[in-house]
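Below is the record:
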Amino acid sequence: MTGGILRWNLFIGGHLSSSVPVRLVEHTDEGQLLWLETGTPMWLTDLPGGAHLRDIPPEERPAGGYPLKAGRWPMGSALIHQPTAGGHAVFWFFGRRRRFRGWYVNLEHRNHHGEDIDVADHELDITVSRSHAWRWKDERSFAEKTGHPSYWSPDEAAAIRAEGERVVRLAETRTFPFDGSWCDFKPPSHWTIPPRPQPPVRSVLGPPGP
């Protein structure tokens, strides 16, 4: 239902990194659009020494995952398109006064469980500016993780990069979602920031697929 609250759960190397509530903007056969408001109460992995989960080898992590701590979404508000058949999501990021700042492509594998959207991050991402200039992000760490059993095989890595190249062609030709649509989106005024949900049931996943 439009305006309904879902949970966007991000997993890195099979372990939960964060969980944040989002609102459903639109759902069609082609995919769904979500709204993530800056400052939304969320759950974050409580890591030692302020480390980032992607920098901790999976074999050095607790088998059942790390504990969680309360936090808030620190980045700008975002509209998120999750295509039904695609191994990626596209974020429209907005700054102050809802000014569109650019797109961000997250290469990923998703599973839906009721109100939960479990996202296995594929590390390699793409940034696309308002002028449609694009660049790869995190290529080195993507290559370093390739072949690790908690991440992806060389063949899966090739498929992940091919998915990114397909999205790049959409950006270069200014094809949806890079056609200028939704860049002026504003959520309905009656949408409040969702409350912090209960902690996710799953804190550990199996290895992600391409």
Notes: Residues 124 and 138 are 5 Å apart (CA to CA). The longest helix spans residues 154-172. The chain has a mean pLDDT of 94.
